[in-house]
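Long-time lurker. I teach an intro course on protein structure, and each term I like to show students one example going from raw sequence to a predicted 3D structure in token notation. This year I'd like something fresh instead of my usual example. Would anyone be willing to generate the tokens for the chain below so I can use it in lecture? Attribution to the forum is fine with me.
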Amino acid sequence: MTAFILFTGLLCFVFALMTHIVIWRIWAPKKQLFWLFGIFLCMPLFVLITCANGFQLSLLDSLAAALLWLAMAVAYIQTYPALKEDIPSFRLLLLLEKHPGMSKEDIITAMKQDNLFSAKLDELKNDIFLVKKKGRLELPPAGRKLADLFYYYRKILGLKPGEG
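-- Reply from a regular --
Happy to contribute to a lecture. Here you go:
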């Protein structure tokens, strides 16, 4: 792999990352996963096509650059939800940073006051993985596919519900 192929693949990813950051700073979309897929999997095609035409990359070189960009994009999309999530462990660390020396009971009381699931429910509804019908929450087809994906992945790993 030549340095230019590496540069082109990295440029595609950096272009998408910068676009993502600018859009989220100006306007945080409700359907974040939809936008992430659009930004990271569609927009870099323009960079790749421009580089392929402007710098006369061969088809094989273009495919190599696209594979690098795609690998980084998929890895980023996969880790993004965990990075932006309000993780209980991080919340606990921040609580102890603000209030050092808390007892276990004080920590449990403070953590119970925070609603960890409300924001996640809203996010799942915004991304159309969860819908409300007749006052009840249900999984639409996209939500069912996502749940099945995690279910079978955890099953392959040998994890039972509630373990991990």
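Some talking points for your students: The chain is about 75% helix and 5% strand. Strands lie at 131-133, 136-138.
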